[in-house]
Each structure stands twice: as C-alpha cells, then as structure tokens.
Amino acid sequence: MSRKGNRLDDVLAHILDRRLSRKQLRSLTTVPQGSVDFSSNDYLSLSSQPAVQQAFLSRLHAADDSNASAPSLLGSGGSRLLDGNSSLAESLERTIAAFHRAPAGLLFNSAMEANVGLFSCVPQLGDVIVYDELIHASVHDGMRLSRASKRIPFAHSRVWENSGTSNPSSAQSLEAVLQSLLQGREGSLFQAGTRNVFVAVEGLYSMDGDIAPLAEVVQCVESSLPNGNGYIIVDEAHSTGILGDRGRGLVCELGLEERVWARVLGFGKAMGCAGGIVLCSPTTRSYLINYARTLIYTTAMSFPSLVSIETAYNFLMAGHAEPLLSHLHLLIRKTDELLLALCASHNPPADLLRVATAVEPRSPIIPVLTSRPRSLAKHCQQKGFMVRPIVAPTVPRGSERIRICLHAGNTVAQVQGLVEAVEAWLVAHPERFYSST
C-alpha cells in the first residue's frame, strides 16, 4: 500500500477513535445460535412460516421447470429501464397498489431507496419539505439531494401549537411551521398554491414504536393549505402488515387513501422479505421512472426477490396472517403489562430504567429507556434473549434504550423470560445507581 493510502487510513482511524471515545462505534455482529429473537423486524414471523416457505419454493420450482423461456433464477439482467423489467414486477405493482387502495405503485429494491428516490426528485425549486423530527434517515438522505428550498422539522407527533403536549423538543408544532411559511417573505406564494409543501411522517416510528397522529396531520395540512398544495407522504415501512384491515397500513385503517399524496412501504419488516414500493398516482409513477435515480441506475430485483414479495402478499391478502397478528397483539399487551409491573414494583430512577405507557398498546416495538443500554443488552443476550442497544446518533442523546421487537413466533414464556432478565439486571445493579421504595 502506498504512503498516501496509509495516511488516509490514519485519518480514518482517528475519526473512528473519536467515535469509539463517544461510545458510538458501530460494528457488524451475528446472532448466537439458539437466541430468542427480540430484535429483528420480522414482526409476523412470515419468513419462518412453513406455508410461506413452501409456497415460495413451489413457485420457484414451477418457473424453473416450465420451459426454456422461464425467467432467470439468479439475476434480473439490468435496471428496469434496460433489461431488468418483467411482467411479474408490473403485475406485482398493480396487485400491491390495489390491495392498499392506491391508484398505482412503483417497486424499489428497498424502502430506503424508495424514500431517497422520491424525496430527491419530486420537490421542485421553491418547494419546502416539512418533516417530523424523528423521520427515518433515508428521508433525510433524499431531502439532502432534493431541490427543495427549505427543509424544516416539526416536533415529533406534535400537530397543533396549543396541544398541551409535554414534548421537550425545541422544534415547533406542525401547525406553527406551516403558519410561519404562510406569513414569511414568500407566504403569498404558498397561500396561492404556487409553491408546494411536502409533509413527511412515519406511520409507525421504528425507534419509539408510537403511531403517528395521521388524521390530525391531514386536518392541519388541509386547513393550513386549502388550495391543495400540501402533499403528505407517509412512510409505512413498519406499519405495513401490522395496522389496518389485513395489514393494509395506517392510511387505510383511517380511510385517508384519497388525502395522502404518497406512501412508501417496506417489505423487510412484517412482510418478511426485502424491497419497497411507492404508492402514488400514475403520473407520479411515470415521473419517478424518469427521474428517480435509485430506480434508474440500479439493477432490478431478481425473480426470486419478486416471488418472495408475491408469496408474502398472497399469504396476507388471503387472511392467513390474521392468527399470527392476533397472537402478536396478545404478546404486545402481555409485554407492556409485565414491564409496567416491573417498574411499579422496583420504582427505579428514570435514567436507569423506564418504559413508555400506552392506553392501548398496539406496536410490536417497545423501547426500554436506560442510560446503560449496552450493559442491559449484554445481560439479556447472555441470558439467551437477543435485544440490541440503541444509542445516539440513531436516537437523540438522552433517549438511549434497548428496543424490544416482538414477533408472532415468540411465546408468552419467552416474553416472561426476557422481562425476568431485565429485572435481574435491575436488581443486581450497583446501589449507587439504583434505589427502591
């Protein structure tokens, strides 16, 4: 290696050392065999369902045995604009869009690529993107590449200025942000509908596990921008398969299909496979085909990838996932009940251990906040329960946690074992960090 290359490695090593000193260094790990999964996003456990696996393999074998013109089982051959498109990809887009009650859809290799492609190319010069401050990193990447004149955060899930929320964020409410645009130097352009405002939220937030107040978001945008130049984009990566009738998502659950401009769905969570799709109008679909660089310049999904999505959706649309979803909701309620009972029994300091309370818990994502997430995660892993520590910058500093992800494949006994492991860590913690009533 040249001296120049060595000097660069020295610079990179110094940057990594700084991150290590802040206890933020990331590394790749594997899950120990036999661990109970409380970490992955496979909420419905579809990837391990024998019926789903068998249907997937049967579909591949049928295509392989059909005739000489059968699709390649290895690669797609190129981008969709060249040789990578297929009738299966287009029929999947129509099927998925129809199931989610959308006019059209466009597949991407991941939900991240869908977000980057959508946000980077649609907003035009003079437009503004307003986003929930906890929006996913992929939206930030897309916004940075866009031509939007401004990117403005609003306080997480705080819609109205006088909502009485205890959100400690320094960001304004959505209502206040929109009003400031209308009253600013170019306010007349937004009032007249000449300039567009794109409002980005998630259906189910991946770190806190809370559900967006989407009906209020829609009401606020429509009342603030009555000329129809407010366009709501909902990232449903974590709510697909979990919320709504047969897993159609939050937008469908609330009947807001006609009032939300676009949705981004991910298949790597509850759907148990990989890929993503933008649900939108036919015109927007055509625009993305022409301008979304994450679609234009990437190799299209292979036949097996498309078949995995098709298989998962067939299972979902047929209603076969309903028993899995019912069991998952049972686990959500049980976990919430056990964690709240643990905190009530030991009354630990809030910085050491606390859980959010919900009137009606519905999310398979349950954060357990602690200032010592690595210690707690390591303890649980040693007991055979795979949970991960989540630290800054993935979450805001001061909100570090372990994130419990529940799955339909988990059992009540496993949940009880995990909570007992958390309690054992709490009880064994040094006295100077822990006090009980």
TrEMBL record:
It holds the Pfam family Aminotran_1_2. Keywords: Pyridoxal phosphate, Transferase. One of its GO terms (biological process) is biotin biosynthetic process. One of its GO terms (molecular function) is transferase activity. Its cofactor is pyridoxal 5'-phosphate. The keyword Transferase applies. Residues 36-422 form the Aminotransferase class I/classII large domain. Transmembrane segments: none annotated. The keyword Transferase applies. Belongs to the class-II pyridoxal-phosphate-dependent aminotransferase family. BioF subfamily. This is Pyridoxal phosphate-dependent transferase.
